[in-house]
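Exercise 7. Given the encoded structure of a 464-residue chain, write a plausible sequence.
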């Protein structure tokens, strides 16, 4: 039997034993009160790794004019200034692949970190494990690419993406063709797609390429092809003109065009269930402050708003409106939307919301739809709570997202292959995987019990 399947069964049966076990052996998660260092690749380091450092500052540290120097003995490995990192803007110094460990012997190595110009200075000891112990598919794994009609599909050999590449290429071509028919983008280049064998953020993001997590036993529930379509929608949207393109419509459009957020789902009845759960966010709040809202609620509400507008005004008129939104002097997206709505549809944003709410209230909401929504929100909140506590480099606010082009040039694969794999990570990921399966199968009671278990375990880990 596959190890993970076995583990899931054990966990289901022996949750209480595991609780006791965890309570007795885990290290507490404490707030950062002094400089601290994260190394990459995550997990144990092996001889030949190209190691990066994130140096996090203590609360209240004024970082301007300071930098950090990292030394191994007398040799300087690198230095970097402090600045905001990631979506969350965490203040840190980041030294990308500063330490080439190729010629080291296995064993402890002591690194010296110095804040320049006037300290402090401290040492960190890391253990280098022999290269022979590196987990598969390393050391053979390398970057490779498949070219399809739409895309250059980048992957690491020996991963699930390589195994499934023929199917993935077909899915990518179908999705890209379908989106190109709605949003005829101007660029004709092959779209760069990167399949990452690690859960990062919410499973995908887009910058100068589309990055999607693709792996077996994905504890976010294996939504990779749905996420791929979402990121394709962003790609085509960004190349189809427009000016302000407020986040509420960018994300709403991506979910609407991919027919669901993490799975195909009836967006409008699902948004109606938000009202029954008292989770509806006023549109002005959502428009002006989109990303800080609860992720699944904000995206769903935005997607159903796009759906409602397309149903009411037609796709072409909606698209013309969306591409004709311009910033107003107060800098608020809600004001810009209001002005464009009045120009295109002779309606205010408040007037649109009134009609949108009437429309949602007329939708039938089944109990299973409501349960599915409620537990989906709980599931992703729990998964993010896990990331924050035990895999911070996966959490979307502080995700470790190296550029695949540099990795490919330098032959680096470990940053996307490895992640914290201690016993706590394995147990909680297995529980999340269990909950994801139950949620998808409509076994809501079971999913809820498992999520409660994960939350009580995480509570113990954080509070001890
Ligand atoms: Zn998005």
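Solution.
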């Amino acid at each position: 039997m596959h190890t993970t399947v076995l583990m899931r069964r054990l966990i289901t049966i022996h949750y209480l034993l595991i609780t006791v076990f965890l309570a007795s052996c885990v290290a507490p998660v404490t707030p950062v009160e002094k400089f601290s260092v994260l190394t990459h690749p995550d997990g144990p380091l092996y001889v030949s790794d190209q190691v990066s450092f994130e140096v996090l500052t203590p609360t209240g540290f004024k970082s301007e004019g300071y930098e950090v120097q990292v030394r191994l003995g007398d040799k300087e490995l690198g230095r970097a200034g402090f600045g905001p990192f990631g979506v969350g803007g965490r203040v840190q110094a980041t030294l990308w692949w500063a330490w080439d460990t190729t010629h080291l012997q296995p064993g402890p190595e002591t690194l010296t970190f110095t804040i320049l110009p006037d300290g402090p200075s401290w040492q960190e000891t890391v253990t280098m494990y022999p290269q022979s112990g590196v987990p598969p598919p390393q050391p053979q794994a390398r970057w490779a690419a498949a070219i399809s009609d739409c895309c250059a599909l980048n992957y690491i050999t020996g991963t699930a993406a390589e195994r499934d590449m023929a199917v993935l290429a077909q899915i990518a071509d179908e999705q890209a063709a379908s989106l190109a028919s709605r949003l005829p983008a101007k660029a004709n280049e092959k779209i760069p797609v990167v399949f990452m064998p690690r859960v990062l953020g919410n499973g995908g993001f887009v910058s100068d390429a589309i990055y999607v997590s693709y792996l077996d036993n994905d504890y976010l529930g294996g939504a990779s092809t749905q996420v791929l379509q979402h990121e394709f929608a962003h790609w085509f949207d960004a190349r189809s003109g427009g000016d302000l393109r407020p986040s509420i419509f960018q994300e709403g459009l991506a979910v609407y065009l991919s027919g669901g957020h993490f799975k195909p789902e009836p967006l409008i009845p699902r948004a109606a269930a938000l009202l029954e759960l008292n989770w509806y966010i006023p549109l002005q709040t959502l428009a002006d402050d989109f990303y800080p809202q609860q992720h699944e609620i904000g995206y769903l509400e935005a997607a159903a708003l796009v759906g409602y507008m397309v149903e009411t005004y037609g796709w072409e008129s909606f698209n013309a409106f969306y591409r004709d939104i311009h910033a107003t002097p107060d800098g608020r997206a809600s004001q810009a939307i209001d002005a464009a709505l009045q120009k295109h549809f002779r309606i205010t944003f408040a007037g649109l919301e009134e009609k949108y709410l009437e429309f949602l209230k007329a939708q039938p909401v089944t109990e299973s739809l409501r349960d599915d929504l409620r537990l989906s929100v709980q599931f992703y909140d729990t998964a993010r709570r896990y990331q924050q506590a035990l895999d911070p480099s996966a959490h979307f606010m502080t995700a470790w997202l190296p550029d695949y082009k540099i990795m490919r040039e330098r032959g680096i694969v470990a940053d996307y292959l490895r992640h914290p794999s201690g016993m706590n990570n394995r147990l909680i990921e297995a529980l999340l995987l269990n909950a994801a399966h139950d949620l998808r199968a409509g076994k809501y009671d079971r999913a809820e019990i498992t999520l409660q278990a994960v939350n009580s375990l995480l509570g113990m880990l954080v509070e001890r």
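Remark. The first strand starts at residue 36 and ends at 40. Students should compare their own answers with the one above.
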